[in-house]
Design goal:
single chain, alpha+beta, Jelly Rolls, 19% strand, globular, binds fe (ii) ion, iron
């Protein structure tokens, strides 16, 4: 149950930096449980990552910045929804959609070294492929390495958090380990371009809950992220130095039988500073995702096959509208599985 919080709690992950102390890990486990049962959102500090906040946003700047990847090269990486001749349907670049409320361009990658068994080769007639390989710009090889390292680090942290969450549910620490097999986790670099004053709008990302399991969010220093509490107030969640934000998605809320909450959030456009040009914003959400064939079970015993669940969900996501018109019904059909 979400509560009437007025700021987001801060959780130190120092117990993960110096592993070995069982009681510290148990304390962290119950702190995560408490937070996910109330606010559903928290800042994480003392992160067990080698990449700093600056490193993460340098990656964004190297892609989207003034001296970043030229538009022409970006469009070579665009998903097929945007460039009909491109092979990639799920990974890669998406341009900002003029006229939409979600004014952002992005670049997405999945697990860097997926097992061969989990990769479905590109097929011109299968218009949509959750398990395709990543695409990267050719002009900057360090970009690829840095993205992959960040993905690996965030995947490792997600696995640790899932173990702690399993313990908090009274299960063994390996309870969620099957989620890790052929994981489809997505690292998304986002750029909200500056909006000219003449077409100013209040929100650059509309209110939503995340659909999946766990989201780990790096946000830059611009601010604008807001989180909805139980009495309908939007609580600002600006950048706290050295932190990342954690929240859960609808699917994990269901898995927990409603014990944990997937909280609504949105992004407000940056306050204009007098005599300065409008500012853009970068953020980097990492969406931890199970494998396509992973059976995700709720505490109540409902179950869903993760890949099918995602394909159902994507029907409502604007960037995939065209593509999903062509997904064969058979892929979305499920006999034993109820989409909960
Ligand atoms: O840009 C942000 O800070 C939030 C992005 C977000 O909520 C999302 O991509 O799901
Ligand atoms: Fe979100």
């Amino acid at each position: 149950m979400s509560t009437s919080f007025s700021s987001l709690p801060i959780i130190s992950l120092s117990a993960l930096l110096t592993p070995g102390k069982q009681e510290d890990l148990l304390e962290l486990s119950s702190r995560l449980d408490e937070v996910l049962s109330t606010t559903g959102f928290a800042y994480l500090t003392d992160l067990p990552l080698t990449y700093t906040h600056e490193d993460v946003f340098e990656i964004c700047e190297d892609f989207f910045g003034e001296n970043g990847i030229p538009d022409e090269e970006k469009m070579k990486l665009a998903k097929r929804t945007f460039v009909k001749d491109n092979e990639n349907t799920y990974r890669g670049y998406f341009p900002a959609q003029p006229g939409s409320d979600n004014l952002k361009e992005g670049f997405e990658l999945g697990t860097p070294t997926p097992s061969i068994a989990s990769i479905t080769p590109p097929q011109r007639d299968a218009k949509f492929n959750l398990t395709e390989v990543n695409v990267f710009p050719k002009s900057d090889s360090s970009f690829r390495t840095r993205c992959e390292t960040l993905h690996n680090e965030l995947q490792g942290l997600s696995a640790q958090l899932l173990s702690l969450l399993a313990i908090s549910l009274g299960k063994s620490s390996s309870f969620f380990d099957h989620y890790l097999v052929n994981s489809l986790s997505t690292l998304r670099l986002l750029h909200y371009p500056p909006i000219p004053e003449s077409s100013r709008q209040d929100l650059i990302c509309t209110p939503h809950t995340d659909s999946g399991i766990i989201t780990l969010l790096h946000q830059d220093k611009t601010g604008g992220l807001e989180v909805l509490n139980s009495v309908g107030e939007w609580i600002p969640a600006p950048y706290v130095p050295g932190s990342m934000v954690v929240n859960i998605g609808d699917l994990l809320a269901k898995v927990s039988g409603g014990r944990w909450v997937a909280t609504y959030h949105r992004v407000r456009s940056a306050e204009r500073e007098p005599d300065k040009p409008p500012r853009g914003r970068y953020s980097v959400p990492f969406f931890f995702e199970p494998g396509f064939d992973c059976v995700v079970k709720s505490m109540q015993g409902d179950e869903v096959v993760y890949g099918k669940h995602v394909l159902e969900k994507m029907k409502g996501w604007i960037e995939f509208q065209d593509v999903l018109d062509d997904v064969p019904d058979i892929l979305l059909e499920s006999k034993a599985v109820e989409v909960f």
